[in-house]
Design a protein that fits this description.
alpha+beta, 8 strands, 301 residues, disordered N terminus
């Protein structure tokens, strides 16, 4: 309905003017726009989620690309990573079990033929020098007195000698080697160790006594060699030279036979009766009927 207004200050007649309501209509439309925007604002999360679900279904990689454009770095890191489906691995093919092979029947091992004793003895002879033990001895200023009546005399000598001990390989024969097939053991039965060699390497007169005659100092020197040799042999026996020879022989010959036969070896020695045997060089004798008296420490006829 049109509103009519009158002017009272003017005496002239006022004609009515119609006022249109276009301003209210604009306000109404503005309200509807604001309401629609608010509705879109509140519904934007659901709309965005629906849009993202449609994008994810169409292209999953594009879905994560789109999220990375709108989300912060911290939120993007919390999103689950895309895990591709495992590839198909076919089941292993069936492998049949190997066919059964019967265990071979046991066969008796032939007994090895023992090494002949003759061959062992022949090889042992090559080790003769290795089983010899030696000892060097020295005597300084030992007195040698010669009872020659009015021409008796004496002198002091210095001597050095070497005493050797071992076994006599001439006594080793095939009977010295025995083999026990039950225990597979070789047994060496060897002669008892003995003094195999003795020699004086140096002797000298260092002091002689006064005599009215012209003494035979060469004879005194020979008597001195006999005298000191007996002392050297006695000292070697006391120092265990014979025992050392037995230990060395057992060690070397036993190991040698064990090497060439591949079997166990036992070494035994003949029983030692009395004093050990001595080579002729280890028991010299004075010529001319001279005899040494140990109680008087004097050579006399």
């Amino acid at each position: 309905m049109a509103d009519w207004k009158y002017k009272t200050s003017d005496t002239r007649p006022v004609y009515p003017v119609e006022v249109k309501s276009s301003g209210r209509g604009k306000i109404a439309w503005l309200g509807w726009i604001i309401a629609a925007a608010a509705l879109l604002y509140f519904m934007s999360p659901w709309i965005a989620r629906a849009f993202l679900e449609l994008s994810r279904g169409a292209n999953e990689s594009a879905y994560y690309d789109l999220l990375s454009d709108f989300m912060g770095e911290a939120e993007l890191l919390t999103l689950p990573t895309h895990t591709p489906l495992p590839t198909y691995t076919p089941a292993p093919t069936y492998t049949p079990f190997p066919t059964y092979t019967p265990v071979p029947t046991a066969t008796s091992t032939p007994t090895p033929t023992p090494v002949p004793p003759a061959f062992i003895i022949q090889q042992l002879e090559t080790q003769a020098q290795l089983v010899v033990v030696k000892k060097e001895l020295t005597r300084r200023s030992f007195h040698v007195g010669v009872n020659d009546g009015l021409c008796s005399h004496g002198g002091d000598f210095t001597a050095q000698g070497v005493i050797e001990a071992g076994i006599d390989f001439d006594k080793v024969d095939e009977d010295s080697v025995a083999y026990d097939s039950r225990t597979q053991t070789y047994t060496l039965k060897l002669p008892a160790p003995e003094f195999t060699s003795c020699r004086i390497e140096y002797i000298r007169l260092v002091k002689n006594s006064f005599s009215m005659c012209n003494p035979d100092w060469d004879r005194a020197r020979t008597l001195a060699e006999v005298q000191v040799m007996k002392e050297f042999v006695a000292d070697s026996l006391e120092d265990g030279l014979i025992d050392d020879a037995a230990e060395r022989t057992e060690l070397i010959l036993g190991e040698f036979v064990r090497t060439i036969t591949g079997k166990r070896v036992t070494v035994t020695f003949e029983e030692q009766r009395g004093a050990p045997k001595r080579d002729a060089s280890c028991r010299p004798r004075a010529l001319g009927g001279w005899r040494y008296s140990s109680s008087k420490n004097l050579w006399e006829k």
